[in-house]
Amino acid sequence: MRPPPVPLAWKNLAHDKVRFALFASGIGFAVVLMGVQYGIMNAMLDSNTVLIERLKGDIVLINPNKVSLLFREGVSRRRIAEVEGVSGVKSVTPVYTEYSIASLRHTANDPAARTNTRRIRVVAVDPNADALDLPGVTAKDWQELNTPGTALYDRKSRAHPDQVNHPGESVFGKLEPGARTELAGREIRLVAGFEMGFDFGTDGSVVVSDRTFEKWVREPYYPAEPMAECDIGLVKLDPGADPKVVKAALEAKFAAGDVLVLTRDEMVSREKSFWWTNTPIGFAFGAGVLLGFVVGVVICYQILASDVADHLPEYATLKAIGYTNRYLSWIVLQESLILAAAGFVPGVLVTYGAYLLLTEITGLPMVLTPGRFGLILGLTIVMCVSSGLLAVNKVKKVDPADVF
Q: Which domain holds residue 137?
């Protein structure tokens, strides 16, 4: 039996262009709903891993009890120093972070007006170690950081809630080179800016030298051995060294279990897992994605069921002249795939625009990566095909005798 001369799937949907546009917009709405919810969820998780991704190293060493950067558990500097002798290791750099003790005062010129004190993430490294990837920070800026009491500031710190009266200001006030304020109660001078963004624990970040960190942040609270532990041991490998081989060697060296050896990607996954399982992020926004999927299934099913009802005589005629239920079902599934394509293209474009807008408004890193693009596309196809499988039952029940 030869197929019909005109592809029925496209003909059935496109005979009324206005109606087809409405069909596509319905599917597009579901795509936007899924995409934005999924994007916000990933942005919240990504905001807590930006620092890890900025580390310029191949392997990281942390305390096994440190389930998140937010917590204080560190690794002994003596254990970190032992890494230097492992084959394939070029260097190891201690990285320090502080989330709870340190706070940054408002940057008002008059010290008496520096009333606001906000929590800030303090990151400390040796300025000469080339340990952090901070675009926009020059070699001169890093050298200036060797002067005690200087800091690099995050231009993407949380914005002031009243941007009408405080345009361009952060919750810390105006952050600009030369500005003076107080970190942990002691005066510092801002040198240059970088972009990292705030997270769940803090409103922004500053990067200081390990010397400034010792005197300003750690020494007042840990006077005996302020730098006995670091939060991360950042390992750089020799050119050509196999990361898997070096990682295995380090794991064997720290077989006692007091140091956890991870690749940078593994640490990113570990950090995201903590926030996924210990906060409502996964449930809240995962439910939003599921809601968008269900809405899309309902919309697509209503479209296909309505289209089948409108073309019952055509389906009955095809059935009467010998076309099988399988072939007619394939026509409906083709319609569902056409709807998926027609709705996904505008939907994903609107989603991308929403990502840019929400990134600008909130400061959260909403990025449409190829993997996330593929997941949204896959959900859209499954959504429409599922609806098509439900609508197929109407075609199978068509009886030419009843229609004519």
A: 54-263
